[in-house]
Amino acid sequence: MATQTHCLSYAGCNFLRQRLVLSTLSGRPVKIRKIRARDDNPGLRDFEASFIRLLDKITNGSRIEINQTGTTLYYQPGLLYGGFVEHDCSVLRSIGYYLESLLCLAPFMKHPLKIVLRGVTNDQVDPSVDVLKATALPLLKQFGIDGESFELKIVRRGMPPGGGGEVVFSCPVRKVLKPIQLTDPGKIKRIRGMAYSVRVSPQMANRIVDSARSILNKFIPDIYIYTDHMKGVNSGKSPGFGLSLVAETTNGTFLSAELASNPQGQGTAVLPEDLGRNCARLLLEEIYRGGCVDSTNQSLALLLMTLGQQDVSKVLLGPLSPYTIEFLRHLKSFFQIMFKIETKPCGEELKGGDKVLMTCVGIGFSNLSKTLK
């Protein structure tokens, strides 16, 4: 960290989280120019500024410089510190936007992280807290990040535009990560889900469940969708409802899909029956894509493989999302690591879409703070 590493330079507001997270882990400063420079409202948005404030809270000694108009950002990362943190997220994006990055950073803190995040728990843009709890946490356990203090708890739900939700995330620290070999996804054995409704009739959740089951029952009998109707202060500030579905395979792979109703006062009203059916179809589409990691968590899996011990890790993925492809380019810039990518066309035995086998040798990243104990 003490050696002066050359600063990486980027232009544009895309992939801001990726760049800042990789910069924090690699210790390389990053400069991002022309952030919405030609926009009517130039510079960083509120949710991006909130994300930078969050990084500042969980690190020690970070240097952040933003110019007058907010179109240029210089970030020199400090050491990941952790401890107990509270953060009010911007209601323009959901808590999932912040949580995705925290999942990447949490295992490498100096002190175990316990963080309270407030804001929107479920929206139509980012992965919801329910989906991250059901898919990202089991993925981290594959890498050896596990323990009593590893949990993600939804205290209150909050829907856009008002927010008012609250989640608690705690994660233990690890010195090194285990390499993984996830090459056989297995067959779907059960489907679980969560239909939630806040500040609307509790009957909405039951209507969602019935319509989702009408499609999924044709494929598999073991389906259970929980209903979650939060009341009073726990229901946040805005009305809404939604559904998250997770399919689990015989080999412990989790594939997810989710949908939420339109925010109050925006767009046309969504019928709970339509929402349930559409979400079930999205889950079937995700199962068709397949792989050992679903499309929301592809970049998380690839990052943890990169940071693993100096050993070979393999993972079978469905088609790579554009976000993941850009993430691979960033991994090459920050860590000089490249993956071997083999396409596996869908034969008779691999039903579903074409798969991609990703192989890499970890860089042997070790948590510096853990050696000082």
From TrEMBL:
Gene3D superfamilies: RNA 3'-terminal phosphate cyclase domain (3.65.10.20), RNA 3'-terminal phosphate cyclase, insert domain (3.30.360.20). The keyword Nucleus applies. One of its GO terms (biological process) is ribosomal small subunit biogenesis. This is RNA 3'-terminal phosphate cyclase-like protein. Part of the small subunit (SSU) processome, composed of more than 70 proteins and the RNA chaperone small nucleolar RNA (snoRNA) U3. Interacts with BMS1. Residues 183-287 form the RNA 3'-terminal phosphate cyclase insert domain. It holds the Pfam family RTC. The keyword Nucleus applies. Its main location: nucleus. One of its GO terms (molecular function) is RNA endonuclease activity. Keywords: Nucleus, Ribosome biogenesis. One of its GO terms (cellular component) is small-subunit processome. It comes from the Eukaryota. Belongs to the RNA 3'-terminal cyclase family. Type 2 subfamily. Residues 10-341 form the RNA 3'-terminal phosphate cyclase domain.
